[in-house]
Structures are given as structure tokens and as C-alpha cells.
């Protein structure tokens, strides 16, 4: 095997390791979302604490990915398409870390609700769980699009984020109604609003991941432009 082929295989292995780390990180934060939602529905402070503690692993993964990206760029001096991939992976890691932060925020609200001994209305838990399931599905589809470098699927994630935004607004309207009808619910309603906002932000970060997939696959930066059907990204 000549040296050039050997170096090329090493480079491919390094890129594959970066991809794998992103998918591992994505799986971890997806679990955080699911667990935070379950902790809310079950009023489970112990599960919420596990979500908070898991954030340290997410942060460590982001640091590893960023360090590996810097190392690969410095050592390999990649060409345009590979450099695009590496830079996008670094940006994805940042969005995934922020998703972890939002899941941690959800979990901390759950602990506050549990500490007050507040009883949650069934419709509240159902709405929040549905919202979290939609956001989690957006993230899963964005990660799948990354794994397969499928820009078409990534663009459906970008479009579908608007539905999550609409459902978030519906939840907020309902929470405001509860606060107006019974001022005793204000403190817990504020926590529920914070949870809903965190979920809406998770959707935004999933959309960002999807936008990076389009950039990797097609070389188009659509963050501030339009996707194929003319809709704003």
C-alpha cells in the first residue's frame, strides 16, 4: 500500500469517527428529551435529576468533537467538500449541546414542580408530552438525514418545524387561560411555559442540524434563505 492511499484511508476513518460521534451525541440528547418528558408526565424528580446529570456527558462529547475537528483540519488540510463536512459537524455538535441544555432546563422545572407538590392537570401533561414527541421526532429525522446525507429529508424537517411552532403557541394559550382562571396555578404555569419554550427551542436546533445537512450535501447555505419550494428556511 503506498503512502498516499494509507493517508487517504486514515483521513476517511477520522471523518467517519466524527460522524459517529455526532450520531452518538444525537442519540444521547434524544434520550434526554424523552426522559425529561416522562419525568414531567410522572412527576418523577429522580428521573429529572438523571437528565440533569447526563448533561455532563453531552458537554464532554461536544468538546471531543470540536477538538477532533480542529485536529483533522490542522493535520489533513482538507479540500472544500471535506472542510464543509467538518465545519458542519462542529456546528451540529453546538446545536446538540444546546438541545441538551434545553432538556436540562425542562428537568429542573420538573423538580421545582415536584418539590411544591403541585398536581398537574392531565391535559397539561398530554400536551407537553405530545410537544416533546414532535420535537424528538424532528431531531431523529434530522440525524437520520445526516447519517444518509439526505437533503430532501432534511428539508422536510425544516418545513415541519413550523408545525411545532404552531403547537407551542397553542400550549401557551392554554397555560395563560389556566393562570387567568386560577391565580394559584401561576407559579407552576410559569414552569410549564418554560418547559414548552425549551421544547420549541429543541425544534429550532433540530432545524439547524437539518440545514447543515443540506449544506454538506448540496453546498447551499439556506439558513437565511429559502428551501426548494420557495418557503423561508
Task: Tell me what the structure shows.
- This protein is mainly alpha-helical and 233 residues long.
- Helices cover 86% and strands 0% of the residues.
- The chain has helices at 3-42, 45-76, 80-116, 122-148, 151-181, 186-218.
- Helix 1 (3-42) packs antiparallel against helix 4 and helix 4 runs parallel beside helix 6.
- The longest helix is centred in the first third of the chain and has 40 residues, at 3-42.
- The model has no long low-confidence stretch (mean pLDDT 89).
Write out key terms for the chains shown.
233 residues; Methane Monooxygenase Hydroxylase, Chain G, domain 1; 6 helices; mainly alpha
Short description:
With 233 residues, the protein is an all-alpha fold. The protein contains six helices and no strands.
Quickly count the helices: 6
- From the helix content, strand content and strand pairing, which structural class follows? mainly alpha
Overall residue-averaged pLDDT value: 89
CATH topology: Methane Monooxygenase Hydroxylase, Chain G, domain 1
Whole-number tally of structural domains: 1
Uncertain segments? none
C-alpha end-to-end distance: 46 Å
How is the secondary structure organized here?
Layout: H1 3-42, H2 45-76, H3 80-116, H4 122-148, H5 151-181, H6 186-218
Helix pairs in contact: 1-2, 1-3, 1-4, 2-3, 3-6, 4-5, 4-6, 5-6
